[in-house]
């Protein structure tokens, strides 16, 4: 054991008051597991795309009682710095994972010991409802204990600022800086004996009813919903969405007879026993029970939340009896059309220069195409709702209105939260299906109608495994060497290049990108002369290089042209692999 690791172990054993995690470290020491100790003790817990996520184990690089206390101490001190004349407290929620309720209580206790009011939900609450609570209660900050769709061994720490959006710089960096500068926890932080009786502890449950009232502004066809013969199969994926999603469907006018729950996945279960991954985005292999339940009950639409109910997957039964599972980009295309159609009908004379939809840089640019044709505005953000939520708030401050934001990983922000909301999205998609059914169309039919009107926007994304982190740096370095990027990808000419790692975009004045630069992450986007897009991005958490290809065609092509369009996409994908990834040269391993 190195001197540095030995010192960290000593600090851990001195500071950790949880017998279980103390025993974990003591056993690793006794067994001489130096590599495991190093992995757990070294490394920093940093805020990523969706907060901090890590396995629940002992160690400074893991999530546990001690690191929750340390991080919250940094958060509390930073709030006191930013609001020296007093703040409006913190709203705290938690999901159904192991330790989530305890972590929420420990965090709340740290805030209270620093004189900060805490609004705590009494039971599990969806992530978007915590964002809403910050906004509704006018809190200075918010905290959600969740690892969303991560494996059961993980948990997470998702922080919000006073606008209800996730924290970005400088807030995230400063919280971590203070945490690391003042790592030793106060003894009082561990004592929860008086927590429930504290005069600074309030219930956040008062925000639940107003949340449903606010989200009903997206309910346009209540009478139609009340009489629809459609049946929707809903899965909470062993998470916390069931009570909220089924209530939202009722609020939109659907009856209990319209909604069939996947009973085996209805209640929170932190072990996620019936799915190989607790992530509905994985598609058919994790939707087995949903498909079986739907078939048994004559249901034609499946709506599945992820475990913290901030994302939504959808599938629809086709006339041939097969199930079509929509991608996030396809769902985003439908949501863009639906939100725009209904908003415009109710605001026919509005100034469209102030009306925005947002989507992320790796999502389909179909929003841009629709915006150009219909007249509203589209802004692109970095990946993740922490960026979309804050951009939406910035636009609001300028007198603009954001009516929708979404990204390809089945996340949609159609309402009053400043984070993605799988609860309101479930009801909106159900109403969309109902309206289409009344008009003799399916969701799948409508998707291809939109492609015919605006052009196909077909997206393909996957990843290749990198043998070593140094390979990632070398691969991207060769792409941008002396700013001599590839001028052709396959047979297609490259029109523009945006490299957010070095801050280069030759489609913008002075070659300066509008999107924020991120020198710590590799990401290059190629716009082709035919309007198609390719983004190459290094994963921030895994040894992977991901690519996102979007093939765009001219309007007018029908569903019968799909085979021809897919062949064009296949050729473009091969060009991306050969020109950009060069797997033989760099030893990349394809996704299995």
From TrEMBL:
Alphabetically, the GO molecular function entries are: magnesium ion binding; phosphopentomutase activity
Q: What is its main location?
A: cytoplasm
Where does this protein have coiled-coil stretches? none
Q: Give all residue intervals belonging to the Alpha-D-phosphohexomutase alpha/beta/alpha domain.
A: 45-183, 216-317, 356-454
Q: Can you list the GO cellular component terms from the UniProt entry?
A: cytoplasm; nucleus
Keyword Aminoacyl-tRNA synthetase carried by entry? no
Q: Superkingdom of the source?
A: Eukaryota
State its location(s): Cytoplasm
Assigned keywords, A-Z: Carbohydrate metabolism, Cytoplasm, Glucose metabolism, Isomerase, Magnesium, Metal-binding, Phosphoprotein
Q: Name one GO biological process term.
A: glucose metabolic process
Family from the record = Belongs to the phosphohexose mutase family.
Q: What protein name is recorded for this chain?
A: Phosphoglucomutase
Specify the species: Mesorhabditis spiculigera
């Amino acid at each position: 054991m190195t001197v540095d690791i030995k010192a960290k172990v000593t600090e851990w054993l001195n500071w950790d008051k949880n017998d279980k995690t103390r025993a974990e470290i003591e056993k690793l020491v006794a067994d001489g597991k130096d590599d495991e100790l190093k992995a757990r003790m070294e490394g920093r817990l940093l805020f990523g795309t969706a907060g901090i996520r890590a396995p629940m184990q002992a160690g400074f690089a893991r999530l546990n009682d001690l690191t929750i206390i340390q991080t919250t101490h940094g958060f509390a001190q930073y709030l006191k710095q930013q609001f020296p004349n007093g703040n409006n407290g913190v709203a705290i929620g938690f999901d159904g994972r192991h330790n989530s309720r305890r972590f929420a209580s420990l965090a709340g206790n740290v805030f209270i010991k620093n004189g900060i009011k805490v609004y705590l939900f009494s039971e599990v609450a969806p992530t978007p409802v915590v964002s809403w609570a910050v906004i509704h209660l006018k809190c200075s900050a918010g905290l959600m204990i969740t690892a969303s769709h991560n494996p059961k061994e993980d948990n997470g720490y998702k922080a919000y600022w006073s606008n209800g959006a996730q924290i970005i710089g400088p807030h995230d960096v400063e919280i971590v800086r203070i945490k690391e500068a003042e790592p030793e926890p106060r003894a009082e932080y561990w004592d929860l004996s008086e927590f429930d009786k504290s005069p600074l502890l309030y219930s956040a449950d008062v925000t639940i009813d107003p949340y449903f009232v606010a989200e009903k502004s997206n309910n346009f066809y209540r009478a139609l919903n009340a009489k629809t013969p459609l049946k929707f199969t809903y899965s909470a994926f062993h998470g916390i969405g069931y009570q909220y999603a089924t209530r939202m469907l009722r609020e939109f006018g659907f009856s209990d007879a319209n909604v069939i729950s996947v009973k085996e996945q209805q209640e929170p279960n932190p072990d996620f026993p019936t799915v190989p991954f607790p992530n509905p985005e994985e598609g058919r292999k994790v939707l087995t029970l949903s498909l079986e339940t739907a078939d048994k009950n004559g249901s034609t639409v499946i709506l599945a939340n992820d475990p913290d109910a901030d994302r939504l997957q959808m599938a629809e039964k086709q006339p041939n009896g097969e199930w079509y599972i929509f991608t996030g980009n396809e769902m985003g295309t439908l949501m863009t059309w639906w939100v725009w159609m209904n908003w415009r009908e109710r605001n026919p004379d509005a100034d469209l220069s102030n009306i925005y939809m947002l989507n992320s840089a790796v999502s389909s640019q179909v929003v841009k195409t629709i915006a150009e044709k219909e007249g509203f505005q589209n802004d692109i953000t970095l990946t993740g709702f922490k960026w979309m939520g804050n951009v939406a708030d910035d636009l609001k401050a300028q007198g603009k209105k954001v009516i929708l934001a979404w990204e390809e990983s089945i996340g949609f922000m159609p309402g009053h939260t400043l984070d993605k909301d799988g609860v309101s999205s479930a009801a909106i998609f159900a109403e969309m299906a109902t309206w289409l059914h009344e008009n003799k169309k399916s969701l799948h039919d409508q998707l291809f109608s939109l492609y015919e009107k605006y052009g196909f926007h077909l997206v393909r994304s996957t990843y290749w495994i990198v043998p070593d982190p140094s390979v990632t740096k070398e691969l991207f370095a060769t792409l941008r060497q002396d700013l001599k990027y590839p001028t052709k990808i396959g047979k297609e000419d490259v029109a523009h290049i945006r490299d957010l790692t070095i801050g280069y975009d030759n489609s913008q004045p002075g070659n300066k990108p509008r999107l924020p630069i991120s020198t710590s992450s590799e990401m290059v986007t190629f716009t082709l002369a035919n309007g198609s897009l390719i983004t190459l991005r290094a994963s921030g958490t895994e040894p992977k290089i991901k690519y996102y290809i979007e093939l765009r065609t001219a309007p007018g092509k029908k569903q019968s042209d799909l085979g021809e369009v897919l062949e064009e996409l296949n050729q473009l994908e091969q060009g991306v692999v050969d020109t950009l990834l060069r797997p033989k040269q760099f030893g990349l391993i394809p996704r299995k």
